[in-house]
Write a structure and sequence with these properties.
Elements (H helix, E strand, L loop, with lengths): L2 E6 L3 H14 L3 E7 L2 H11 L3 E5 L1 E2 L2 E2 H7 L6 E6 L6 H6 L3 E4 L4 H15 L7 H10 L7 E6 L2 E6 L3 E7 L2 E6 L5 E3 L3 H8 L4 E5 L2 E4 L3 E5 L5 E4 L4 E3 L5 H9 L4
Parallel strand pairs: 1-2, 1-3, 3-6, 6-7
Antiparallel strand pairs: 4-5, 8-9, 10-11, 10-14, 11-12, 13-14, 15-16, 16-17
Helix pairs in contact: 2-3
Protein name: DNA-binding response regulator
Organism: Chitinophaga cymbidii
Keywords: DNA-binding, Phosphoprotein
Length: 252
């Protein structure tokens, strides 16, 4: 079975290059159209309903988010493309939507397509684009949501509900204010990069904590942060000074 694909890219050379890569190395897909502007992309998606859309983030006529806001539905999988570390990458990472940096790497393209095809073949409604649009519209002081993919589906979790993260090998467990813990098959380093600028701190090689959820700090036995769920999280000696500095500036 082949899935229909649309390539949205305003530079013809880049559009043709990606088209050739998909044709030659992604046998699961059939490129049924290309678009060079926001208007062309919206019209094609509304009329032809492609299953996968490769979408340049920044175009001369607008952005990929203009396209997403104007189409009639979001029943397709998006793989964003961008030539630089775009300001929207943070929102994209939170929403677990794939993106490719230009020049496009063949291996990364094949991996992104394989993930898209797997997602299209799974059961249940995929709300990642809705989460992405909500995150993109938020100001810096508003609460983001993060998408957590597990073996039984995708969970959409507000950052303010996360107390701490714990690593176990290649897995990370999220401990929340309400609800059961959520385990995902990604390592802690990935979430350190995503959450670092949002009030979270890697306090130990195995733990990331929400600084707003620290109830107190115990200095004995090397030091522990006591969290709002009464968990005692060890403080790495290398992280102690930075932790103390961050806590001294905490306002809530």
């Amino acid at each position: 079975m082949k899935y229909s694909a649309l390539i949205v890219e305003d530079e013809k050379l880049s559009r043709d290059f990606l088209n050739n890569l998909v044709r030659d190395f992604c046998p699961q897909l059939e490129v049924t159209g290309t678009a060079g502007s926001v208007e062309e992309a919206v019209e094609f998606i509304n009329q032809h309903h492609p299953r996968i859309v490769f979408m340049d983030i920044e175009m001369q006529t607008g952005t990929a988010f203009d396209v997403l806001q104007q189409v009639s539905d979001h029943h397709f999988h998006v793989i964003f493309t961008t030539a630089f570390d775009h300001y929207a990458i943070q929102a994209i990472k939170f929403s677990a939507v794939d993106y490719l940096l230009k020049p496009i790497n063949l291996e990364e393209l094949e991996q992104a397509v394989a993930k898209a095809v797997k997602q299209l073949g799974s059961q249940g409604e995929d709300q990642r684009l809705e989460v992405l649009l909500r995150n993109f519209k938020k100001s810096s002081d508003e609460d983001y949501s993060i998408s957590l993919s597990t073996s039984d589906g995708v969970h959409y979790v507000s950052l303010s509900t996360i107390i701490r993260l714990e690593a176990k090998g290649p897995y990370t467990t999220f401990f929340l204010k309400n609800g059961s813990p959520i385990m995902v098959s990604k390592n802690l380093k990935e979430y350190e990069m995503i959450l670092g600028g949002h009030g979270f701190f890697r306090i130990h090689n195995s733990y990331i904590i929400n600084l707003k959820e620290v109830k107190r700090w115990i200095k004995t036995d090397g030091g522990y942060a006591v969290m709002s769920d009464d968990a005692m999280v060890a403080i790495s000696p290398k992280k102690k000074d930075e932790f103390m500095l961050l806590m001294s500036h905490r306002t809530v």
